[in-house]
Amino acid sequence: MEKTELLQKLAGIQTVESVMDILKVGRRMAIYYLRRLRKDGYVKTRRQSNNRRVYNISLDNKFGGKSYYEIINQYSPIKISTSVIHKIYGKEPSLEETLIYAIQTKSLRTILASLALFKKINNWIELYNLAKKTHIERQVGALYDLARKTMKVRRMTHKFRSSALPKEEYQFEFVVSELKSKDFTEIEKVWKIYIPFNKKDLEEYQ
Amino acid sequence: MITIDQQQKLLLNVARRLTKKITIYAIGGTAMMFLGFKDATLDIDLVFENEKDRAVFKEAVKSLGYLEMDAIKVYGAKRNTPEMFRLNDERFDLFVVEVIDFIFSDNMRKRAEQIHQFENNLILKIANPHDIILMKCATERIKDKDDARRIINSTKIDWEIIIDEAKKQIDLGKDRAAFDLGCFLEYLKTKMNLDIPQEVLDKLFLIVEKQAKDKISK
User: Fold this and answer.
1) Is residue B50 very low, low, confident or very high in pLDDT (cuts 50, 70, 90)?
2) Yes or no, beta carbons of B150 and A85 under 8 Å apart
3) Of A8, A40, A85, which has the smallest distance from its Cβ to B115's Cβ?
4) pTM here?
5) In CATH, what number is assigned to the domain containing residue B210?
6) Mean pLDDT in residue range B144-158
7) What domains are there in chain A, each with its CATH number?
8) To bridge A160 with a disulfide, which of A124, B16, B38, B106 should be the other Cys (CB 3.0-4.6 Å)?
9) Of A192, A181, A113, which is closest to residue A147 (Cα–Cα)?
10) Closest-CA residue in chain A for B35?
11) B118 in A contact zone (CB under 8 Å)
12) How many Å apart are CA B12 and CA B101, to the nearest integer?
């Protein structure tokens, strides 16, 4: 059987038994196919509490690299499952980059999960520069204030705050289009940014 | 042949030599590798958004020792052939917007959802399988027919996307799009026994018929 065909049939979480079932082969052949895929880097093996082996078979395992979602899931109690594929190779994306990416997705749950990154972010210069490039400094500031209300976060530098705060003539902008907050209007006024969350949305952080 | 590992190392090496951030689209065998349809390819087919980006990429590739080669040897005397660079068994085919008889349209760009970023400067977007099939019919190489067969056999094809894109290509001035696609799919259906609905072929030839009538009436 061709490797690509094998991969397509077995992609996902498998056990030896499920491989036997899918390929309609005996135990020996199932283990042989798993070995073949593992040799090429497609398989990651874990052991369950009862010592049974579980195989995670995926093309992603072969490619390696890291995605922004993996980083968010690593640091956030709110986990994201997504079909979006954005892999990065040859460098480890910083938390600052990851936060900016999350805000740019305009996805409610991704942004909510990424609030946890403020606990670890400490390179405010990098964060400001990245935010300025994409004109979302105020969104970052507003989400920081929001995160600060719900969890212990590192302190934002004075320079970031003073540079990012809106001038009088600035118009209100959205983080996620058409979504405004009922509970965080003070933060919205300070940053002239509509926050897409209410208190109830942040319950998962408590 | 280039394997997935070799391709990744190569793209990382190129990314390190790029002087600015560029976004490119992988088509053909390269895209198929990223989508899991094959594990090795003869050439790395890339589409650039503009000539400037291709120039930046060319410089990086040349600095790795790749030498320019004549596209006629591979593609014949077709229009919009790529600039080609070769080192040993590895080859880059670099297109700008137009891929032989097709335009890498805005819709194709939107459908290229999978992103692979190499270091900071190289953003590689992977063409959608439907668009890979469409572009495979631009060449007359047997390996392209075989690649199309692999895609059709391995994934669920929404034929409407392919037909709509053929229409779009005609709007963009590529008059042969529906004809070439129709002939290509007919070959796959009759000679390679692929499960392509007859309705799809009928729709494509209706488009061609209409094109012919329009031309005669003009």
Assistant:
1) very high
2) no
3) A85
4) 0.88
5) 3.30.460.40
6) 91
7) 3-63 (1.10.10.10), 66-205 (no CATH)
8) A124
9) A113
10) A59
11) yes
12) 30
